[in-house]
Prior knowledge:
Blueprint: E1 6-9, E2 16-20, E3 26-27, H1 29-33, E4 45-47, E5 51-55, E6 59-61, E7 69-70, H2 72-91, E8 106-109, E9 115-117, E10 122-123, H3 132-142, E11 144-145, H4 152-163, H5 169-181, H6 205-209, E12 261-264, E13 270-272, E14 277-281, E15 289-290, E16 300-307, E17 310-315, E18 322-324, E19 327-328, E20 334-336, E21 342-345, E22 348-353
Parallel strand pairs: 7-11, 14-15
Antiparallel strand pairs: 1-2, 2-5, 3-10, 4-5, 6-8, 8-9, 12-13, 12-22, 14-16, 16-17, 17-20, 18-19, 18-21, 21-22
Amino acid sequence: MNIDKFEMDNVPFEKTLTLRLPSTAMMDEEAAQALSEWNSPLIYAEYDKHHVYYDITGRVPLRSQLNKVMTKREAIALFAAVADALLYGMEKNISPKFILLDSDLVYVSEETGSLRFICVPAVNPGLQIKPLRSYIRELIVNMQYDSSENLEYIGKIINYLNQNKKLNPADFIDYLDRLEQEEGPVASADVFPKTPEPDMIPLESLAAERPVRKQEEEISFMAPEDEPKKAADEVPEIRLDDVSVPAPEKETYDAPQSFPYMIRKKNGEKIVINKDEFKIGKIPGMADYLLTDNPAVSRMHAIIHKIDGAYYICDNYSTNSTFLNGEPLEAGKNYILLNGVRINFANDEFTYYAD
């Protein structure tokens, strides 16, 4: 866990995040000099031979803000701000690997809502690196969305990511700009629960603040894979192969594991999904969660799968179907579970929470 490598302090800044570099790390002086610029998407920092000191005064981690329900405009602005940070780095000859895409280490201004990113200008810093494409997928899975809007834009972004194994930040921003201009009918379904969250930082300012930087060079983050192409404007069926959050290359810590869970509407029961294959049904010894008190539920009704850090649900050819936000699932196919989605096993309603 990258955040475990950093320490909080009040020197040299009022709120300082300090990284001690391992002896094997080699500082990139050109990249390090870019940390002294105030008006950039990178956190201002000072450094010496063994440490980098980041000024995070007046900022909080992005992870603390992901429970905030976001509109289409806010979500697109967030994705674009992430890509823009990499474009800025390219202009300054900073390797994309130096900019940490980690929600614990991306910071939001408490005053303006703008995002700033931690840049570690060193080779072999002992940190886990996450590419742009993987990080956007992770955000999509963990964010909450405005239920009053048409959420087809999320499917379109997923489709774009699937079609672009080598995700170019400039092209991605151009795509997001076009997508933001699209109008759609307002969804009537109550897709995500709107629970008021105190002290949440507005992200509206991201769209106004972010400059769009153009760069012809394409960054290759992931090895090419063979996958059928879909039309650019087609909203995909979100399947098992569509969205995944790749696990880190190696674990460097022993952190307590957290699991997603469901809340049953009928009685408020909490069901922790603590297996990579979690079965819902009525057969003791085979189902991980038993719904024996509902005759409409099939003997082996549905299965929740975990793959590469993301969770998917599959209707197991049940008699009375499985539903996501009121829409029946095609049996035998996997659909991604987003935070706050409603799941119905026949007529039994649950709400899914990512963690």
